[in-house]
Design brief:
The structure is a single chain. This protein is mainly β. Helix content is 9%, strand content 42%. The strands form five sheets. Strands 1, 15, 16, 17, 18, 19, 21, 22, 23 and 26 form a ten-stranded mixed sheet that branches. This is DUF4861 domain-containing protein. It comes from Zhouia amylolytica AD3. InterPro entries: DUF4861 (IPR032342).
């Protein structure tokens, strides 16, 4: 039987203020009573007073130590010019740090395969896969759907999110596809880096969405279009579009904007959606014998289960009071039992985070450590770092 726990929590407000002067100093503040790291500060050209200048000539320096930080430039609108500068500060509890915008040759890391990486994978039908230094994911495209519809072996019909259980901090996507497609090996076998033994099927996997009508959940099919926005040392992001789909006579449009930052076990999803005022985000319950934990006020859900010769935690974090309820939906239909969080759609959009922690990766030793991580992640998501530009 699934065990259920309900925890009370507290929502905290977020602040973001900006002012600009000739000398650009960035003050980042942590108002929580916990250390903050592996969180990304995103600065636009306009915020930095660089409206008519190239952002590529600038870097970020620690005001006190003079150390240059790793940064990443992002062309968010695809016009060939970078619009944003990313960096990840480290702040002690209840503290602030100053950083300085400086002219610099420091730039986005030019590794052939950056830490935060994603790509379309046409050689394996038409997956889209993404990863960072802790986790990896994939989902499935239109050719994989067509193969199922035409009874061609090797297809996949699912808009669920697959988890690739890596246990190394370097990129594995290209290596694992090469291993599966070009050698006698398989990414379904763990030879030291991890493996793909997470079953998705028609389930929601780790963060797929659905629309509930009466007692039935309706889901989209495979993505139809993709666009990579950025890869680099700090973030990868991309867009997946879906054909309109039917929820008991109601037409739903869905477009996923997904990003994954260095050091995070959870991908960020911003879903543009029309046709419903509530969207449900799911975690597959697999054998339905794991442990469910829900924290409605802080906005998170977790499922911890035995998995192969190890254990696995999956989780969803929903900030900003968007979580309005949840359901352990259990059915005998194959791959259809999911833990669902119900999100209120605001301005045709929802935002949430979804991901996993694998015990064998040695990132988490038990369910308690996983729940501590999810709870801390939710605290930070509900209380972002404060950024002031002087």
């Amino acid at each position: 039987m699934i065990k259920t726990k309900l925890i009370a929590g507290l929502l905290l407000p977020a602040l973001f203020s900006i002012s600009c002067t000739k000398d650009t100093v960035i003050v980042v503040s942590n108002t929580l009573d916990i250390k903050r790291q592996n969180e990304t500060v995103t600065l636009s050209k306009a915020q930095l007073g660089l409206k008519n200048a190239s952002i590529d000539s600038y870097g970020i320096k620690d005001f006190k130590s003079g150390q240059m930080l790793t940064i990443q430039y992002v062309d968010i609108d695809g016009d060939g010019e970078n619009d944003q500068l990313l960096f990840q500060p480290i702040l002690e509890a209840n503290s602030s740090k100053k950083y300085v915008l400086v002219t610099s040759t420091n730039s986005t890391a030019n590794d052939s395969i950056p830490t935060c990486f994603s790509r379309f994978v046409p050689e394996r039908t038409d997956d889209y896969a993404w990863e960072n230094d802790r986790v990896a994911f994939r989902t499935y495209g239109p050719r994989a759907q067509k193969m199922i519809e035409e009874n061609i072996p090797g297809g996949t019909l699912s808009s669920g999110i697959d988890a690739w259980l890596k246990r190394v901090d370097y990129p594995i996507i290209n290596k694992w596809y090469h291993k599966e497609l070009e050698t006698d090996g398989s990414y379904h076998q763990d030879t030291g880096e991890g493996l793909d033994n997470f079953h998705v099927g028609a389930s929601r996997g780790v963060g797929g969405v659905a629309v509930k009508k009466d007692t039935t959940y309706f889901i989209s099919r495979n993505f139809t279009e993709w666009k990579t926005i950025t890869t680099g040392p700090i973030r990868t992001s991309f867009v997946l579009k879906y054909a309109n789909w039917d929820a008991n006579g109601q037409q739903i449009s869905e477009e996923k904007h997904i990003s994954l930052d260095k050091g995070s076990n959870l991908s960020k999803y911003t879903i543009k959606v029309k046709g419903t005022d509530t969207l449900s985000v799911g975690l597959t319950l697999h054998e339905k014998d794991g442990s469910v934990t829900a924290n409605l006020k802080e906005g998170w859900l977790s499922y911890w289960e035995d998995h192969g010769d190890s254990a696995l935690g999956t989780g969803i974090v929903i900030p900003d009071n968007q979580l309005v309820g949840y359901e352990e939906f259990i059915t005998e239909a194959r791959d259809s039992s999911n833990l669902y969080g119900h999100l209120k759609v605001k301005n045709n959009s929802i935002t949430y985070y979804a991901g996993f922690g694998w015990k064998k990766s040695k990132q988490f030793e038990n369910e308690s450590e996983w729940l501590d991580y999810i709870e801390s992640f939710a605290q930070k998501a509900n209380t972002p770092l404060q950024v002031e530009i002087k």
